[in-house]
Amino acid sequence: MITSILTGSFLWAGSLITLLLYIVFILAVCVKIIMDNTSASKTLGYLVLIVFLPLFGVILYLSLGVNYRNKAMYDKKLEYNDDLKDKIYEYTKHIENNPQAIDNPVIEQFKRLAHSVSTEDIHWMSLNNDVKLLKNGENKYPEVLKEIAAAKETIHIEYYIVRNDGIGNQIKDLLIKKAREGVKVRFIYDDFGSKKIRGQFAQEMRDAGIEVYAFRKLLFIFWANRVNYRNHRKIIVIDGRVGFVGGINIGDDYINVPGSGKPILRDMHVRLEGYSCYALQHIFLSDWNFCAKQKIEPNAQLFPVDLREEQGKTAVQIVASGPDSPEPYIMNSIIQAIALAKKEVLITTPYFIPTEQILTMLKIAARSQVKVKLLVPERTNSLLVRMASRALYLDLLRAGVEIYHYQKGLIHAKTSVYDRSLAMIGTANMDIRSFDLNFEVNAIMYDREFAEKMTAQYYEDLESSVQVTLEEWEKRPKYKVFADKVVYLASSLL
């Protein structure tokens, strides 16, 4: 009898201690969430999840939500970045980068934008650029192959997605050929986005003398949390003179074949020639020195001095941001551009879950009689992202924002045009993941002629789109509205 009572007491005490430890653990995780996150919506999202689903919420946060910005690996990357800035400055100090000293009406209108992101030495503005707009993969890849074939000294490639398919192998084979000719080829791929090339594809390049590295190599035990902090950039720099940047990855699915019957994949890229290539080179070197065994020292081969001769007349500012950035520079540049626009804001994005700041700016602009248009796909490859996005429509429509759904396939471009004067093209989606979690890069063109081309393309895409009306959105079934809003509560986790 006594033994039975003692056993029961021990079990009760053990259960109580276990419960107390569980509660303390949950509270400790909640404190960590509050201390780690500066975003109120993100903090609230995780806390709500833990309140309703404690164990699942904790596991999800520890897997996906832990903030790695302050970890040793990023401290190391910041050291590399600072070291690079000082060394690269010797090659870039001659570039005119004071927007106030430039006689350009577009720069005059948007000079606050230029100043707001040029606090980083990497984000200076250059004036001597030739810029070519490349619509879709079928127009981008021939240009890329041509420039790779003409390379004489260095080829630097950094991509989120590289597929082991037709165009992927065509580029790989040409890189191998150039490496065997004596050109120095360096290749960075994201280990999550390009996980299918980790084997034979990458090894074939290494065997030919190409230096190949995965960005933040995935280990099984850390797989989940490293899905967040990915390198979403798409950069090519050839001989330090020609560069490519934009939304188009390397894969056959980006090539649209007339008459194939397949949905169109609409995307946008730019070819750059001029000082803007110095900035792309800087970003590549920063990422290379983070993930490669052998660090690269800046030299005149990577930053050719004869680029001082004028290549073109377009003013370009390259803006990069990521977990190693002290500020979300890409997001800040978009906020400033919206604030400075006087007549028109044209945005294209495949994923639309913006920050509260951008949402507010869009609504203020529309209510201030600025024509604000948003072009997104009818369907994306993520149901939850689509639902979270549509939870925002009603407020935007009531403010006067025009929303369009692209019908011909997936519009994957990440572009915006302001007053037909300033244009942005890059890798950053209009979502929290791009602004806060991934390594991204955008090009800003301060040029009316180029912006007019972008505007014409935008209105051409609108012809293949259907406008969402306030009347139809107000009539949506309540269960759909409720479901969208529930998903939006977790938007910072998507």
Written account of the structure:
The protein is an alpha/beta fold and about 500 residues long. It has 3 domains: about 1-65, no CATH class; about 70-105 and about 130-315, 2-Layer Sandwich (Endonuclease, Chain A); about 330-494, Endonuclease Chain A (Endonuclease, Chain A). About 45% of the residues lie in helices and about 20% in strands. It has 19 helices and 19 strands. The strands form 3 sheets. A 15-stranded mixed beta sheet has the order 4-3-2-5-6-8-1-9-18-16-15-10-12-13-19, sandwiched between helices. Strands 7-14 form a two-stranded parallel sheet. A two-stranded parallel ribbon has the order 11-17. Strand 5 (about 235-240) and strand 6 form a beta hairpin. The termini are far apart. The relative contact order is 0.13.
